[in-house]
Structure formats: structure tokens, C-alpha cells
Amino acid sequence: MTDNKAYTPDSEPASTQSQPPAYTSSVGSLNDFNSKANLTEKDQLENADYNPFDNRDPNGSSSGGALAHLLKSSLGTGILAMPMAFHNAGLVFGSVMTLIVGFLCTHCVHILVRTSHNICKDAKVPSLGFAETAEKVFEYGPKGIRRYSNFAKQFVDISLMATYYAAACVYMVFIATSFHDVINYDVGLKWDVRIYIAMTVIPCLFIGQIRSLKWLVPFSFMANVFIVVTFAITLYYMFDEPLVYSDKPLIAPAAHIPLFFATVIFAMEGIGAVMPVENSMKKPQQFLGCPGVLNTAMITVVLLYAVIGFFGYVRFGDEVRGSITLNLPEGDWLADCAKLLMAVAILFTYGLQFYVPNEVLWRKIQHKFKPENHNITQILLRTGIILVSGGVAAGIPNLEPFISLVGAVFFSLLGIFVPSFVETVYLWPDRLGWGKWKLIKNILLGIFAILALIAGAAASIDEMINPKTED
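Below the sequence we write its predicted C-alpha cells.
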């Protein structure tokens, strides 16, 4: 990494010797998940204002394509967990706070993308990923923290890997639980869900070996078809009989509230997909703004989550489970189809979920192995990680608190705390607004993220250790 002492702060006169060198992305193998082309040294040394948007790939995705990708990344297992979130919040509190949390998550994405755009101008590069944005913000930040730029990048990279791996464990539990409920009831078996988790590991071992995004496209296409069909069937069962509101609390007990926040954050946060989608756009200026790609996507997502969460809880009440598909009638062929289709859809999505962190991990460690051993090393590495993931899933087979735990620990940290912290560093010390209101705002966001992390994790772990049988 370049020595940070060579960088010139904004207050000092620039010279060609003190300009940061051309930035080289270390994640080029990730295609759409990473930064695009680098500028030439000549471009880097120009003193004229640099517009990163003018240097994007002209063949990049359209705004409509970016919107589709963002919606796809947000509408997954999270939306199926929203009725459980409302169970832990109550009808009124859940409705209001879902909108508020949705606004906070959207705002944090806004400030992350806006900060990335600004630091791209300073560094004279067309685009930066999440971890690269954190790194560059520290490199161009106050002198006292420049030496932590590599730490910032590694922290975000490792956190993203941990987030994807943890979500992959949730996928395994969801798939196994769906097959467990259908097969055990229809066939009359009494197999423990851990047996199904062990069987789920087998196809994951094969899908997890796919190393090219193009080979994952057919899986993603089929997954999207299955998800749409499952949503349609689920909505049918949600409204197939009169809804009863009178026995549902408006506000749930205070002890359940942390689980609500953790689940909602898990459901809404697609922070890992935001920068790749934005980086892939040929007109990134249309990502923010009004209406903009981000606002359109998040408004759609938040409204869908609120509607599914509200009516799903009203329909199934205290019996609601970590995925609303698991509440569909047992033994009914249409309901069984929905459960199995969703399980297969998540299995097909597992390849993409597993691809991203493995590419980041391999980039960091591939230099430690001889090139002729790369293939076998990758096979063994991926196999080992999947087996460990299966072990974790078998150790925590209860879907509801598992989702809350992942949301509390990883998504509150990456989705709320890091963006607010990165923006503060970038704006420090004299661009924080009147009365330093942006600093105060980001401190409050950081406190909220830490409280959600601690309270949500504690409540989730307690639920795992002492599962409640009745509310």
C-alpha cells in the first residue's frame, strides 16, 4: 500500500510529487461486485476538476437494470421474516418503526454512496467499492488517521465476508426447515431438522464450487421464478379467510423489541449489493436524487415489507414463524409446493451468496499458494467453509433467533454504523454543517447501531438458549 505520508491535505499546495498515485483496485476478478477501470497516470496528475461519472463504462447497466438488481438483492428471505418481526413489535409499533428503520437504512446508503462519489473525485478514480471507499476516505482524511486506511478496508472486507457467510448459514437452516416440515408431515417421518441440514450441505457443496458468475445466471433466473410463484401462493393463503385484528397487540412487550429491530435490519439491509450495483451503472448520477434508483427501490421494498409483515402477523398471530411460508397449511399440496419452491429458490441463490465472500477471501490468500495448486486449494477451501457453515447451522437450527442474531451483529454494523462513521471522517472537521449537525446525526446513528447490535444479539442468544414455547 502507498505510504500515507506522501498524501497532501487539501490545505496544502499540491504538487505532482505529493499527489496520490493511481489507484489500483485489488478486486478486479469480482466483475460487477467491484470497482471498474483505473485511470492513467496522466489523468491522475491533471489539476482540473475530475468527474468520475464521465469515466464510467459506457456499456454499463441502465437505471432500470440497476433498479431490478437492487430490488432482487432486497427481496429475499428477509421479506418472509417480516411477520415474525411484527410479532415482536405489535401492529402499530411495528408499522411505524418499519417505516422509520427503512428511512434510516435508506439514508445510510445515501451517505455511503455520496461519500464514495466525493472521494472518487478526490482520488480521481471512476468508482470504488464499499471497502475501497472506506480505505480512500481514511487515506485522504485527517493526518492522524491516515495510517488506519488499510485497517478500514480490511475491517469492511472481513465484515462483508462474515455477513455473507452468516447469511449462507441462515439459508441452510431455511432450506432444511422447509423440507423438514413438508417431508416429515406428508411421509410421517420424525427426523430432526439437523438431519435435513446435513442433507442440505450436499447440494451446497456442488453449487459452492461454481467460480464464474455466468454459470450462476441460470440458477438466479430459476430462483426468481420460484420466488414470484411462492409470493403469489403465500398472498393467497394470507387473505383466504377473514383477518382478525382484535387479539393482536398494538405494542409488543419491551423484551421483544430488540428482536424486531434486528429482524427488520436483517430484512432491509442490502448494503453489500449497493456499491456493486451503483458501480455497474453507466449513469450513476441517477442512482441518488429524486426519484432516483435508490429511493424508488427502497420505497418499494419498505412498503412491501410493511404490508407483508402487517397482514402476515394478523393472519397467523402468535403462531407466526421465521418464514411465513412455514406457516402455510401442512399437507395442503399448494402450500407444500410453495414451501418446496421457496426452499429450492434459496438453494439456487446460495451459489451467489457464497460466491462473493469466497472471491474476497481468495484474493487475500491466493498469493500464499503456488499457482499450480490454486485449483485444488480452492476446492478444499470452499468445501471446508461449507462444512463449517453446515456445522454452525446444525448448532443453531432455530430460524427465528438466527435471523435476528445475524441482523443485529452484522447488518447493524455494516449498514448503519460504518456508513455514518465513514461520512464523519470524510467531512471532518469543517464540512459537518451548521452547528456540526451532521456530526450529531451520525453520532445518534452510531449509538442506534450499537444498541441494536448489543440488545438484538443478547435477545437472540437468550432465545436460542431458552426458546419460548408460548408468548
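The first helix runs from residue 41 to 45.
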